[in-house]
Amino acid sequence: MADFKDASEEDLKEMERKCKQMVLESEECSEERKWLVRRLIELRLRVQELRETSDESLLETQVILGHHLVPQKHHIVTTGPIYCDHCSGAIWTMLQSWYMCSDCGFCCHWKCLNRICRICVHVVASEAGGYTYTRDICPEKGLSAQGYKCAECNARITFTFSKGLSLSCFGSPFRYTESSWVEPRLCDYNGLYYCQRCHWNTLAVIPARIIRNWDMEPRRVCRAAAQLLFLIEERPVLPLERLNPKLFTLVPDLSLVKKLREELQMMKRYLVLCPDANTQGLPWRSGLRTHLVENSGNYSIKDLVDLQNGTLIEEIRAAYDAMASHITELCALCKARGHLCELCGNDEVIYPWNEAAVSCPKCGTVYHRVCWSKRNHHCPKCRRIEQRFALQSTDLTESDKECEKDEQDIEHCDISQKDFLN
C-alpha cells in the first residue's frame, strides 16, 4: 500500500475502503490482520486531520507504525543532545528538520521518516491491555535462533568479520578490517540481540528481576525496551503479591507498605463522605500517588525503586499522618464516625486502623483487639442480626401457613358452590 503523505481526501477514503476489505478477508488474530488494522487506523487519523484542521503545520504530523510524529521547531530548547532513534545519528536541532512521537518520545530525522521499522511502544502497551511484561529474567534464545540478524532492523550481526567484509544497517554500509568486530548487544529485558543502532546500552530497571529477586540494579536494554519501560514506569501494573507473595515475607519494608496502604483504604472511606475533606482535596491531594490510595494491590516500577531507597515510606507516612489527623482531631464529623467497643463499654473512641483495634470481617464493627480475643472472635452484632433474620423467617413461615389455609378454604367454598348449582 502506497504512502499517503500527499494523498487527497478522496484517495484516502478509497485506500481506507480497500484496507477495510483486506482486514475482513484476513485471518482472525493473525499478524497480517494486526498490521492491516494499524494501517487502517493511520488512514482514518489522516482523514480526520484533513477534515478538522486548516492549519498547514498540523497537516505535517506523520502517523507511521503507530507513531504520531510531530515536527519540532528549530528553536526548541533541549537539556542535552538528541539522537535519531532510527539511524542513531545526532540531531542538530537548530539546523535539521526532525520529528518526535507525542506518545512514546521516538525522535528521528526528516530523512529517516520513511525507513522507520519500530512500532510505537504506546501501541504495543495498548494492544496488551496496558502493559505486557516479561516474567522471565533475560529469556535469551541465542544469536543463532535469530539467524545472526538484529531483532529489530534485520541487519547482519556477528562477533567476527573477515577482511573487507561490508555489512549494512538501515541501508548504511559498515566496513570492517581483519581485526575489527561488532558486538551483538543483548537486551536484558527480552533476551534478544540487537545491532549498535538499535541498542544504545541504555540502563533500565527490569521488572522480572524485581519480581523474582528484588533486584533493582539497572541493566542494559535495547531502545524499544527502554522506551516501553519508561512509558510504564509510573503505572501501577505489577500485582506483586499475586506474582511473588514470598517477597512480602523476605522484605520487611514491603509488608509495611502493604499494611499502610490497607489502612489508607480504611481512612479513605471516612474522607469520601466528609465535605470538608473534599474541599481540602483529601485524600487525593495529600501528596501521595493516586493509585496508592485507590487500591492496595498493584505497584509501579517507580514505587518499588523508591521503596528500596526509602522515599516511598516517607511519602506514605506523611499522607497517613495528614489523613489520620483530619479524621481523629480536626474534623468533628469524621471523629463522630468513630466506634465504641461494645464488648467492654469503654468510652475510648477507636478506628479500624488503630493498632489496638480489630474489625469484624462480616459486619465491619470495630472492637478492641483484646476484647475480641476474649470473646473468641464472636461478634454480638452479627448474632443479633442472625436472630432478627431467624425471627423474620419464623413470622414469614406462619404467615405463609395462614395464607395457604385461606386459599384451601376458598377452594373448598368454590367446590361447594359448584356442587350446589349442579
From TrEMBL:
One Pfam family it belongs to: RH_dom
> Which keywords describe this protein according to UniProt?
Coiled coil, Metal-binding, Repeat, Zinc, Zinc-finger
Q: Which ranges carry the Phorbol-ester/DAG-type domain?
A: 66-120
Does the entry feature the keyword Lyase, yes or no? no
User: In terms of domain of life, where is this protein from?
Assistant: Eukaryota
Q: Which Gene3D superfamilies match?
A: 3.30.60.20
Where does this protein have coiled-coil stretches? 5-32
What SUPFAM superfamilies does this protein's entry cite? Cysteine-rich domain, Multiheme cytochromes
A GO MF term: zinc ion binding
Keyword Zinc applies: yes
Which protein family is it in? Belongs to the DEF8 family.
Q: What is this protein called?
A: Differentially expressed in FDCP 8 homolog isoform X3
The organism's lineage? Eukaryota, Metazoa, Ecdysozoa, Arthropoda, Hexapoda
